[in-house]
Design brief:
mainly alpha, 2 domains, two-stranded antiparallel sheet, 2 strands, globular
């Protein structure tokens, strides 16, 4: 059995940097919970323990986490399903994921 798509995918979900370009309605945005903030703190601590966190492999993650903390909101991938009929470039959740993988728009 072959694998059509293969990548070293580490961030699965809708990243803060992707949300703005999707023109999602405000009702799909969710305020970060205390658990979300704790997870951000934990990840930032992990990345800061690595010397290359600010300039190397972890920089994209740090940038996304900083943006998420700054905004105070998150958006689940499921928001694309309920709003898919409004997008001209993204018709379904699976299209979004396929494009992210095939166009290497993942971190």
């Amino acid at each position: 059995m072959g694998c059509k798509y293969r990548c070293d995918l580490k961030w699965v979900g809708l990243r803060p940097s992707q949300i703005e370009g999707l023109n999602l309605p405000s009702e799909v945005m969710q305020a970060l919970t205390s658990k979300d903030y704790a997870r951000i703190d934990s990840l930032e601590a992990l990345f800061q323990s690595n010397e290359s966190s600010r300039t190397g492999v972890f920089k994209p993650y740090c940038d996304e986490l900083n943006e998420m903390r700054r905004s105070g909101f998150k958006c689940e991938l499921e928001a694309l399903i309920s709003r898919s009929y409004d997008f001209s470039l993204i018709s379904t959740l699976s299209d979004f994921i396929e494009r992210a993988i095939t166009q290497r728009k993942y971190i």
